[in-house]
Amino acid sequence: MSKKLNFAVIGCGALARGQHIPNIAKSTKANLYACCDLSDAALQECKEKYNVPVISKDWKSVILDPNVDAICLATTEKLRKPVIEFAAMNGKPVYVEKPLAANLEEMYEIQKIVHKYNIPFCVGHNRRCSPAMIEAHEIFRKQMKENKQCTWRWNREKNRPALDSDGKASINVRINDDWYSWKAWVFDKTQAPHGPMLFEMTHFTDICNWFLDAEPEEVVAMETGMLNHAIIVKYKTGEIASLNLCANGTFGYPKELYEVMGNGSIVVVDHMCEVRTSGIPDVPEVIKYPFINDRHPAIGTEGGINGWLAKKSAACKEAAAADDQSLQFTAEPNKGHAIAMDLFVDEINGERGEVCGVDSAVMATRIAFAAVKSAAEKRIVKIDEV
Fold this sequence. Notes:
386 residues; alpha/beta; Rossmann fold; Dihydrodipicolinate Reductase, domain 2; 2 domains; nine-stranded mixed β-sheet; six-stranded parallel β-sheet; 11 helices; 15 strands; 21% strand; globular
């Protein structure tokens, strides 16, 4: 039978208290056994809100606790490698937030540690575990393998030439963000020396690698300060990914749009609440997904992206009327945070393969570092350079 695992959360900042801690506390596959942080206030909140059996400021003692089965590591990148190494030496599986490290040297050292001790290891590229992403990925990879064609596809001339690039997929990623929402550490070069080109980018480069199922070869990137980034990734077998990240946008509109094309078809993931398809026989053209924390169930009852827009509009009007900006948040898409943790438990219990292992995370992070280098040096950068 599957074992319900005791998790220790090391690093109880805003992300941990907003996602990992409540998700583990609600999980049917994991127990919230310990919380570790230097902040008395954070530990007190964990104790009062979740009745955590163990609270501590000593991460080594938490890892050595024989009742701890696995670690959720949500510290800043400055305290990742020592915790991972100590956990690995003591045979404790680790779920760690992204990016894996703040520099290449430490990233590769972590990769070697994970391989040396062969522990179950997962990096928090949670979008792989969004229900919308999972289904879209399954549909697209099946189409790339089976290459089914709709009878209505316009085949203008029967004697067209064969092309080597036929069957090579491409993906477009558009990110709409609002930098007014960013925390102070983002602007501190000692905390985030590479800015969002690293700390946000790895989410999206990981998704590109996952959908295209190919090995990246070179990257070219352009940026205007911290707020606008355009990146193109070419893969060794001919696939292309283009990513446009803009932080001069608005939370009043959906944040993420993914368009994946190949073999005469397209699969679109819109804000992880709707998947649209075209050109693939016997696949629904529109699939809609439930929202999280929907405060407006009577509005936007059609669901999907149009339903989200209606709910968001109502929430923004409420926020303005009440002069309370927090009221704008409603009906969030399921980005897969809780699912990722439960799937990692399954991985630890030997019931499935890797959720997002160290090698996948390293490759996604290498692309981000290549983009940083490309933007700084204004040239194409080979992945092998990083």
